[in-house]
Amino acid sequence: MLDELPSLPLNDKDNKRKGMIYNSLAVIRFEKDDIPVAQEYLKIAEQCFSLSNSPQVLTIVRTNQYTINCKKNIVNSSKDEFILKSLPSNQISKVKIYINMGYTYQTNYNNEKALEYYQKVFDSEENEINPLDLSVAYNNIGQIQLTNGCYDKAIESYTKALELGFRSVPDTHPWIIDYKKNILTVYRYMRNKCKEQKFMSD
């Protein structure tokens, strides 16, 4: 079936269907830790949604919701780590594809490529972007900035994620709690860095 899809005469409706199929396959591959294939399928889904004239594409596909204890052990470990987010939803748009694409690159340690896709979220021409979607992008960017030692920028990104999250969900929502934990963890890193610098200068 997949081999036949590219040869079909595609209209807007066909592109949406094809995009949903590849998005579904990407979710399956991602859950099986087959990151490269998931990335390829998400690229095709992105292309399909780009060819569609509709800014919002409804689908019954559930996007992969990566748990805190993810397989690659980059979220929780014996050390303080940072909580990444993907977008579980029954409503898929290019914005969600960009975020999930960036997420797959980030979990595969390709931060430069991940940032390219997160930037596409902010450059999107979609009229209404869910604030919670934007909060996910800022949250994941914050983790990259922290990894690069940019503590102030990480705090700024995590704070934006928190502020945007508050627009959509209550302060008891698990994601809000996670965003707060990320901010506190950055501050712990900053304090430890100061202690290290003081030790080295003594």
Alpha-carbon distance between the termini? 67 Å
Please identify the oligomeric state.
single chain
- Which architecture of the largest domain does the CATH hierarchy give at level 2? Alpha Horseshoe
Order of helices and strands: HHEEHHHHH
Uncertain parts: 3-9, 54-84, 87-91
Question: What Rg is obtained from the alpha carbons, in whole angstroms?
Answer: 18 Å
CATH topology of the largest domain: Serine Threonine Protein Phosphatase 5, Tetratricopeptide repeat
- Going by helix content, strand content and strand pairing, the class is mainly alpha
Q: Order of strands side by side in the largest beta sheet?
A: 1-2
**What is the beta-strand fraction?**
under 5%
Q: How many beta-strand elements?
A: 2
The level of helicity is: 55-70%
Under CATH at level 1, the class of the largest domain stands as Mainly Alpha
Total number of helices: 7
Largest sheet: 2 strands, antiparallel
* Shape label: globular
User: At the fourth CATH level, what is the homologous superfamily of the largest domain?
Assistant: Tetratricopeptide repeat domain
Number of domains: 2
